Amino acid sequence: RMGCLCLRKFSSYPSVPQEIMNTLRMNTALSRSQIKYLYIRFHQFSGGGKDPPSHLHKYNFYSGLLQLNPLLPTILNSMFGNKVTITFVDFALFLSTFQAHSLKTSNELKNVMMDKKLRLIFNMYDNNKDGRITKYDLVVVVHKLFSNLLDHVQIMRIVNTIMKEMDHTDSNQIMFQDFCKAFAVFDMTEMMVTWIPEYHGRTTDDL
């Protein structure tokens, strides 16, 4: 999860522009109320000024409990890619990839979301974005997760185990195809989900 998802109380929140609402409704499984919620969250990351922001920088996300997440830099690198700033649509599309499926989600959309999720997760591990996960890449991620709990020897033991399980070509690196196979065996894509709340309160359109 992207840290605390609680909304601070205001008399009203900015409304989602209709064009953006239509775009996200067409390209994701997000409901209207979930899009409203994410729009408000996006607004709060900017500092909650009078006007909703058009873009956010990485530094906007380093606030509150969120900055305590050891994987925050990795998540943001995946979210931003090569961009200096992101729009609300970028933000919502990224989070929708990890959205838990509902009974209304079509099999076609589930498959599209699974492929996108696998690519995003792979890129989170691929530290230098060269299309493969090396032992160094694994060390970086595992160290971020467990450096406060495990010593170097224990971290390397975990890294070696992961490499042994996923490296089907004995090349001391994990390719995307190997990565997908490992996730399929453990059905891990269904476990790596986020629940996006719905917002049913007032927005500026209601005033």
From TrEMBL:
Q: Which CDD domains match?
A: EFh
Name its cellular compartments.
Cell membrane; Cytoplasm; Nucleus
Segments spanning the bilayer are none
- PROSITE patterns given in the database record: EF_HAND_1, EF_HAND_2
Looking up InterPro entries in the UniProt record yields:
Calcineurin_B_homologous (IPR051875), EF-hand-dom_pair (IPR011992), EF_Hand_1_Ca_BS (IPR018247), EF_hand_dom (IPR002048)
This protein's UniProt keywords: Calcium, Cell membrane, Cytoplasm, Lipoprotein, Membrane, Metal-binding, Myristate, Nucleus, Phosphoprotein, Protein transport, Repeat, Transport
Q: Which residues form the EF-hand domain?
A: 113-148
Q: Name one Pfam family in it.
A: EF-hand_7
Chief place where the protein resides: membrane
Nucleus as UniProt keyword = yes
Top-level taxon in the UniProt lineage: Eukaryota
The similarity comment for this entry is: Belongs to the calcineurin regulatory subunit family. CHP subfamily.
This protein is called IP06685p
Which organism is this entry from?
Drosophila melanogaster
Taxonomy of the source species = Eukaryota, Metazoa, Ecdysozoa, Arthropoda, Hexapoda
